[in-house]
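User: Round two. Same drill as before: sequence, then structure, for each protein.

Assistant: Same drill it is. First protein:
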Amino acid sequence: MGKDEKKGTLVLDNFNSTANLASNPGFQSTLSLGSKEVINEKAYNPFEHRNVEHPNSTIGSLVHLLKSSLGSGILAMPAAFKNAGLAFGAIGTMVVGFICTHCVYMLVKTSQEVCVDAKKPSMGFAETCGAAFEFGPKRLRPWANFARTFTDYALTCTYLAALCVYIVFIAENFKEVLDEYMPNYKLSVETYCALTLVPLVLICQIRNLKWLVPFSALANILLVVCFAITMYYIFSDLPNPGDKEMVASPTQWPLFMSTVIFAMEGIGVVMPVENEMAKPQQFLGCPGVLNVAMTIVISLYGIVGFFGFIKYGDEVRGSVTLNLPQDEVLAQSAKILMALAILFTYSLQFYVPMEMIWRQIHTKIAVRYHNITQITIRTAAVVGSVALAAAFPDLELFISLCGAIFLSTLGLLTPAIVDTVHNWDRGLGFCYWKLWKNIFIGFISLVALFAGSYVSISNMVEKFGTVKVLEASNATVALLNGTAV
C-alpha cells in the first residue's frame, strides 16, 4: 500500500450496522494510471509489493469483517421478515445474502486484477471503480474519473443517511425506557431526537481517530451485552409458528429486500480489510475469509429474523429491542445499552464523510480559518442529520428507504457495472454468462431502488402526510448539497 493511501486507511473495529459501509475515511484516490498497452517483461504481482506496517492475520481479517457486519442492523431483521413472511423471509435472506456476497467477491476480484494493470499494490473502493473504467473498453475510459468521484460521493451520502438512522435508534430506545419512569412527561420521538443534538455535536468535534478508539471499544461491549439480552427474550416462551404468515403480500417484498440489504450489505468495508491482510490471496476462494464471514452473517441474520418474527409477529418494530418489555429492568437495560452503543458509534461513522468533505474544501479556505470552519461544518452536519431524523422518526421505514436508495446502488449495481466493464475485453464467459448474471443483479438492484423507495415513501406519506415528507426531502437535498460544497 502506498504511503499516502496508508495515511487514509481506517480500520473499522466495531460492531456497527452494515449501514456502515466504508472504512476509508478520506476516500483517497492516489491512483496514477498508465497506458493499458504497456508491455511488461514480468507480470506485476500486487501482493508482493504491499508494504503494510501492521498486517492482519487471516483470522484477524475474519474477525474484522464479522465485527463490521454484525451490529445494530441485525436487530432490524425481524421487521424485515414481517414484510416477507416466515418462508419467503428465510429463502429471501439466503438469496439476498448470496447476491451481496457475490457482489463483494466481484469487487475484490476486480480490484486485485486492475492492481496488476495499474501496478498498484492495493486500491480502495473508489480507486477500483475508476481503474476498471480506465483499463476497460477505450470508449469508456473517459468515464474513469466520474466513476471514482461518484463512488466517493455515494459512500459519503450513505454514511450521512446511516447517521440519521442512528439518531432514530437512539431516540426510540431512550423513549421506551424513560416513558416508563416518567409517565406524566412522555416526550415525543422527535423531542428525543432533538435532545441528542448537544452530546452528538460535542462528540463529533473529536478529529483524531486515535481518541475515538475507546468509544468504539465501549460500543462493542455494549452491543454484545444488548444482543445477548435480546436473544434471551426472543427464545423465551416462543409461540407456535403455525399462526404466522408464511408469505406476505408481494407489495411488501420491496421493504423486505431493502431492509435486508441495509442490514447485511458491507461493500465498503471489505477493501480496507483485504488491503490490510498479510495473506490477501486467502480472502477469496473456498473457504476463504469472505465466504466464512458471510456464511456466519447470513446464518445469524436469518436466525434472528426468523425467531424474532415468530416471537413478536406483526407487532415487531424497526429494532426488535423496542419490543422488549417496558416494565422489566433487564429489558430496559438492553434498550439503554443499545442507545449508548449507537451514540458512541456515531462519532466514528461521522469521521468518514467528514474526511471526504474536508478533503474537497480545505484548499479553498485560508489556514487561519480551518479550525472555525471545521467546527461549523461538523456542527451543521450533525444539526442537519438530527433535523432529518426528527422529520419522520419511523425506524423501519427509514431503514428500508436508506437501503433502497443508497445500498442497492452502491452494494449491488456498482459492482455489477464495474465487473462488466472490467471483463468486457477480457471475456464474458460462455454465452456471455457473466454479462447476463450482472444484468440480473442490476435488475434486482433497480427493483430494490425504485420499488423499495416507492413503498417506503408511500408509507411515510400515509403516516406523516405529504407536506412533512416533502419538507424532509428538501432538508435531505439541502444537507447533502451543503456538506458537499
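Second protein:
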Amino acid sequence: MVELRINEDRLLNRINELGEIGRNEKGQLTRLALTDEDKAGRDLLVSWFKSLDLKVEIDSFGNIFGTWEENHNKKEKPLMLGSHIDSVIDAGKYDGSYGVLSGLEVVETLKENKIKTDLPITIAAFTNEEGVRFPPSMLGSLVYSGDLNIEKALDTIGMDGKRMGDELERIGYKGDKAPGFIQPAAYIELHIEQGPVLDKEEIDIGAVHNLQGNSRREIIFTGEANHAGSTPNSMRKDPMQAVTYFMSTLYNYINKNGLDTVATLGSIQLEPNAATIIPSRAAFTLDMRSPSADGFLEAQTLVRDTLEEIKAAGKIGVEATEFAIFEPVIFDKGIVENIAASSDELKLTSKLMTSGAGHDAQMINRIAPSAMIFVPSKDGVSHNPLEYTSPEQLVNGANVLLLTASKIVNAK
C-alpha cells in the first residue's frame, strides 16, 4: 500500500465546524443529547456521510452509521470506527467528535486514493454517550451491545422531564434498524485522553489496553431535623454524621489495603440546609472506579456492607440507587499491539494506558474485539471550554487510526 496520510486541513476544518454547533451568545458549547443542537450536529454529520456516498443507517435508538463498502466486500463484517457527538454543558469541541470525524477522514483518505479493502468500514456516532440530559452515560452503545433493553432505555426521563423516546422522535432520528444490526469485525475509538498522563510525560499516543470499572450511585440518608445547639450527640439522628462515617470508612479501607480504587463524593444536598439545624436528609452521589476486576468487586462489597452497617444501627434511614455498574474492560491485545506498532512506524512515541473515563468502546467490546487510541489533553483538562489538543496531536492520532485501520482491513 502507498504511504497514506490524512488530509490535515479537512479534518481540522470539520472539527471546528461541528464545534460551532450548539454555541450560545456567550460562546459556550452545549450540545446535549436529542436537543435541537444535537439534531443540527447530526444533520451535519449525515450530510458529510452522504457527500462520500456512504450507506447511512440509523437504528431505533438514534445511533448513526455511515458505511463504506465495495461490491467485493459487502458480505464481510465491517471494521467500525467511532465515538459520539453529544456534549456536556459548556464543553470543549474535541471530546467524542474527534473520534467520529477522524473515522470519516480515514474513509475519505482511503476512498480518494482508490484503496481496496477486504472489509467494509463503518463510522459510528452513538447516542447519549455523555448522559448529561438522560442519565446514565453511554446509553446508545449499551443498547447497541444488547446489554440494556431498548424500551426501558427509551422510557428514560431526562433532567428536564422529557422522555427520551419522545425526544428521539421529535428530532427525527428514530431509525428503522434494530440496535446491533451491524456486527463489527472490530471496533476502534480514537479519543482525547481527558487526563494529564500523555501531556505531562510528553508522549504522542496512548495505546489503551484496559478501562476502569465504574459504579455510580445516589445515596440518601434520612434522620431528624433538630436544634444544632440543644440536641446532645447521643440523641441526634444526624444524616451528615452517617455521610462522614460512610466516606471515611471507604477512604480508610482503600488507603490501608492499597486498592487500585478511587471513590468520589461529587455532589451533596442537605435538607433543610440551614446553619443552625441538624439536617433531616442528606442526598449525595458516589462514583467509584477501579481498573482490576478484583479491586472493583472488593469496592462494591465494601460499599454495600457499610450501608448495611449504618442501616442496622437503627438511627438513620438508608436508600441507595445504583445508576450504573460497569465492570472493568480488557481490550483486544492484537488491536492494542497494532496501535503501538503503527505509532512506531509513524515515528511517534507511545505507551500502554488505562482509560480512567468511560467510553462507548467498553460497551462495544462486549460484541466485538475493541481498543482505543488516546492523544494528549493539555493539562488533562476536558469537559471544559479550555479542553485543548494541538492540531499536530490531532493529526498524529488520526494518522495512527488510518494506519491501524488499514492493517485490519488489509488496505491495498
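Residues 293-313 form the longest helix (21 residues).

User: Perfect.
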